TrEMBL record:
InterPro entries: Methylamine_util_MauE (IPR009908). Residues 17-141 form the Methylamine utilisation protein MauE domain. It is found in: Membrane. Residues 148-165 have a biased composition (Polar residues). Residues 148-176 are annotated as: Disordered. It comes from the Bacteria. The chain crosses the membrane at residues 56-76, 83-105, 125-142. This is Methylamine utilisation protein MauE domain-containing protein. It is a multi-pass membrane protein. Keywords: Membrane, Transmembrane, Transmembrane helix.
Amino acid sequence: MEKQLILNSTFLTRKTMVDLTCYLFFLLFVYAATSKLLDYQQSLLQLSKSPITTDYAALLVWLVPVTELIIAALLLIQRTQTLALYACLGLMSLFTTYIIAILNFSEIIPCSCGGALQSLSWKQHLIFNLAFIALAILSIFIKPNPNKSGEPNSPQSYSNGQLNQDKPKTCKRVGT
């Protein structure tokens, strides 16, 4: 009984942490994408000024916010959360790599982020991105797995670290 209580408590803590991370990413991506789309001309101008993205600005001005919105939607669906967390990790890693490249190899440093994120310094931007990357990695590693019966994230799916597996029912042939 006590072991089950501890198991349930650990499960709920892990699930709460993953859910919180998913909601934070959801808010971040919806906010950033909306800001970029609402201020389309400014976003296009900033992407055009960057020596890394100049040639692709017309594509990226749509691709980035649409990708952010798709990932945000995937975060809300329980079955696609793990995939979405990997996508969050990938996108934030790309953004962070872009920041590092711009800071080290460019004299022109435009910011094509949306909304209030534009007011961050580049160092703050880097720390912000690294924090979200850490949240994504942590959530991927601690995210509870669904059990075999398809009931997602139930504490009963974790018994001694193993998924509960019902014995398969077999059909016996009667006669010849």
